[in-house]
From TrEMBL:
It catalyses: an N-acyl-L-homoserine lactone + H2O = an N-acyl-L-homoserine + H(+); a phenyl acetate + H2O = a phenol + acetate + H(+). It comes from Catagonus wagneri (Chacoan peccary). This is Paraoxonase. GO terms for cellular component: spherical high-density lipoprotein particle. GO terms for biological process: carboxylic acid catabolic process; cholesterol metabolic process; lactone catabolic process; organophosphate catabolic process; phosphatidylcholine metabolic process; positive regulation of cholesterol efflux; response to toxic substance. Gene3D superfamilies: TolB, C-terminal domain. Belongs to the paraoxonase family.
Length: 355
């Protein structure tokens, strides 16, 4: 009898494991192959070799790029070097990148591990750069003031909070006010791997301000990118493992209510919003398995989606660029400025194209 019980439990366990295994492979989009979509006028950006996970373009064409991310389960090509913030001027014919010097007495450069970024421009045109960092794999938001003349970032403040344990990306709505995606619930990496494998969907979105911090949306299977419409009325959230982009209505008290979701056949990462048209530009991972188990012989591909008219009944989705990993591996972000497209990746390169 005892043997039968053990066998039954073992059988049930195996069946459950098989169910989760197949659902995990579907969530990872493990069987997706890439059909290349090429752009004629592209080149790799010189000086970017350790990733460009997130980037944001200011209204004047200056782009901030975060480079050198170390993230559990993702290969780093320079695991012992701190990350940096790069600047690129998209107005130039042949733009190059420049490392922004970081100043401020209390900032530890050696553990800087930049991930998602966002900017906020004040009424007096002061530009604040907010950067998610993972010093010793913890999560902070580092607040900087951009000093354009000096080509430097003045560190103003480190923000930490118990509701902000594993931040992926942020969208600034004030100099120290933002929404953040918390991409997984557990801090312990062993528990995190089970959380992701089982698809618990305990990832959430927080609103942070110096006097109020609150969870505003939850139940995501890896909330990743976040951004806001040009009129500030809608917040867009990408749910990586569910292959969805969610549109939320933002209210005066900063709460969010779900409006609609769009489904894709790719793992959606960071979201950029074209300030002129309101179009969404998404850096995507066609096959998640290739991201989490990097193999140079069978590299992850890249995919860039453009979503037009997202608020209408029939949004238009275009695959603007797709590559099998020969040129660009692990695209995380794409942004446009005056007919130019800049695509960042989690591993090494970045691509710059004329559309
Ligand atoms: Ca961002
Ligand atoms: Ca991201």
């Amino acid at each position: 009898m005892a043997k039968l019980m053990v066998l039954t439990l073992l059988g049930l366990g195996l069946a459950l494991f098989r169910d989760h295994r197949s659902s995990y492979l579907t969530r990872m989009n493990a069987f997706r192959e890439i059909k290349p979509v090429e752009l004629p006028n592209c080149k790799l950006v010189k000086g970017i070799e350790t990733g460009s996970e997130d980037l944001e373009v200011l209204h004047n064409g200056l782009a901030f790029i975060s480079t050198g991310l170390k993230y559990p389960g993702i290969k780093s090509f320079e695991p012992d070097k701190p990350g940096k913030i790069l600047l690129m001027d998209l107005n130039e014919e042949d733009p190059v990148v420049l490392e922004l010097r970081i100043t401020g007495s209390n900032f530890d450069l050696s553990s800087f591990n930049p991930h998602g970024i966002s900017t906020f421009t004040d009424e007096d045109n002061t530009v604040y750069l907010l950067v998610v960092s993972h010093p010793d794999l913890k999560s902070t938001v580092e607040l900087f003031k951009f000093q354009e003349e000096e080509k430097s970032l003045l560190h103003l403040k480190t923000i930490k909070h118990k509701l902000l344990p594993n931040i992926n990306d942020i969208v600034a709505v004030g100099p120290e006010h933002f929404y953040a995606t918390i991409d997984h619930y557990f801090v312990d990496t062993y528990l995190t791997s089970w959380e992701i494998y089982l698809g618990l969907a305990w990832s959430y979105v927080v609103y942070y301000s110096p006097n109020e911090v609150q969870v505003m949306a939850s139940g995501f299977d890896f909330a990743n990118g976040i951004n806001i419409s040009p009129d500030g009325k809608y917040v867009y959230i990408s749910e990586l493992m569910a292959h969805k982009i969610h549109v939320y209505e933002k209210h005066a008290n900063w709460t969010l209510t779900p409006l609609k979701s769009l489904d894709f056949n790719t793992l959606v990462d960071n979201i950029s919003v074209d300030p002129v048209t309101g179009d969404l530009w998404i850096g995507c991972h066609p096959n998640g398995i290739k991201i989490f188990s990097y193999d140079a012989e069978n590299p992850p591909g890249s995919e860039v989606l453009q979503i037009q008219d997202i608020l209408t009944e029939e949004p238009k989705v275009t695959v603007v660029y797709a590559d099998n990993g020969t040129v660009l591996q692990g695209s995380t972000v794409a942004a446009v400025y005056k007919g130019k497209l800049l695509v960042g990746t989690v591993f090494h390169r970045a691509l710059y194209c004329k559309l």
